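Sample entry (162 residues):
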Amino acid sequence: MVIDRQGFRLNVGIVLINESNHVFFARRVGQSAWQFPQGGMMAEETVKEAMYRELSEEIGLERGDVEVLGCTRGWLHYRLPHKFIRRHTTPKVIGQKQKWFLLRLTTSDQKIKLDCGPTPEFDSWRWVDFNYPAEHVVYFKRKVYRRALKELANLLPNKNAQ
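Predicted structure, serialized as tokens:
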């Protein structure tokens, strides 16, 4: 896990679209919280390598199952609410610093598997309208989701399909 000097954990986020430009939205195991696949970077990884690792671990897709349409130009940040900061860990993580990728599924969604990693993160998923997640993710991630989706919308094929 890589944490910058300010206490932000470096992370990648994945916005996966289908042929209708609907996005993959998944429910966290045992919770009512829904989100996009995302995860922390390892010290030796590039951002793109981390994205492919998270794609495989969290939803069972490989490089050949997707087309990378692009990513956010810069890093997007969010701070964790005070109650979620783990005070007894070093270094202290105050939030996430994320690079977001827009991927298009190029295979059947039957290949999506939620139980590929050692500890599954999701127990359910669905396709939703492109902007739906920005209003339905946990409250402290909404600003980042809005910014990422706004920027990535410019990369959508057939923008009228939104």
